[in-house]
Amino acid sequence: MNILGIFIVPLFGYLITSAIWQKKSLLENLAYGYLIGWPLFTLALFIANLLGLRFATIESSLVLSSLLFIVIILRFIFRVPLNPNQHKINFYALTRLETVIFITIALLLITIFINSLYAIVVDWDSLTLYDFRARLFAQYGGMQEAIRAQGSYFNSYPPHTSLVHMWYYLLGFHSPMTYYGGLLISFVTAFYFSARRVSSRTISLLSSLMLVLAPHIFWHSQIAYTNLPYTVSLVMGTILIVEWVRTNKFSNLALGALLTGISVWIRHPEPFWMTNLLIVVAVSIYKRKPWLILPYSIIFFPFERIWKVFVAGLAGASASGSLSEVSGGLATVTKLSNMSVIMDVIQYLATTVARPYAPAFALFGFMILLKYLQRDKFWVAEFIVITNLALLSAGTLIFAMTQPYWQEIPGSLQRVSMIFTPLILYSFASMKRSR
Known about the structure:
By secondary structure, the protein is mostly helical. The chain has helices spanning 2-20, 26-50, 57-77, 96-118, 124-140, 144-150, 160-170, 178-196, 201-213, 215-220, 227-247, 250-266, 273-286, 293-314, 324-334, 339-354, 358-374, 380-402, 410-416, 420-430.
């Protein structure tokens, strides 16, 4: 019966997504249900603990049951059927090539998930931060012991993955690694359906296959780090915002804001959420619908605030503004006069980011040239990639100016750069329809 506690979490998310997207396929809603169900559950656990509820099996089960009950009641109030008339997929319409690609993707994902059934948490940050916190949460029922044991290390990242691990341990499982296998399956599924809306089935399947085979994505589906959950949430949130720009569907904007907020709940330091906010503000003003900025902000900023306010409270200070750190960083960059630092950063980025992701960036360069020759007028996805590259470069430059050990953590920068491969692959898929 313990496995039921694992299945209920994405079911909770599915009840939300299928209420918003009643005509989308069951598979797509299940995929998005997984992507939003787990983070919303861990956020609820975190808030409940702050309000005095212990991290324990009964109390945590009560939180999950309450979330499920609230969603069902809301569906009843708004008269949303529990079994909506969703779009069905015709697998028999696949061509031979598409069948080969589909079977290859399925076998890869099945292999990864089977491996996760036997895998354990072994990597350094997983053991010393995320999983260690989880075990202390499960053992003591609160966060104080972890805060005392880890000190400032505890504040490095929000406790999403730790709370996922904790829930597995409370239910009696020895390893939480199936969460990461399920995450990749949901990511590829959601990505395919988004790609399919802007390209042919063959190109969508090919892009999805390249996503599964992307080395860093593949590796991190077997590593208990925050990077894959963060990448999945940010990328799918970004893609939904691009879809909103194309279609003007408010549901895409709302869930795009939710997933972007979830990405900040998973990893707080990265600044890529600002690109999505910039797109929403610019497009809303351009379309003369500035009021759309408000619902996006209402959904997104509570996620951005909660961990920052909590960490500031531990230090007895007040949390900095959402954009104050950005303005401070920009001020630091504008004062830079040492060209040698700039050259060192460029060389470091070329070695640490450009070389490991060379195939993706080569594809991106080819697409930019092709879109220019085709005189394509829709450049939102490409603008997002370029803006995020600029943010990554600026962040690395600021880090180089403030931290003497900045060149000693190339693996961290590579993991942060995981977002570019799926964004570029989505841009590649979307080119087919723009011809």
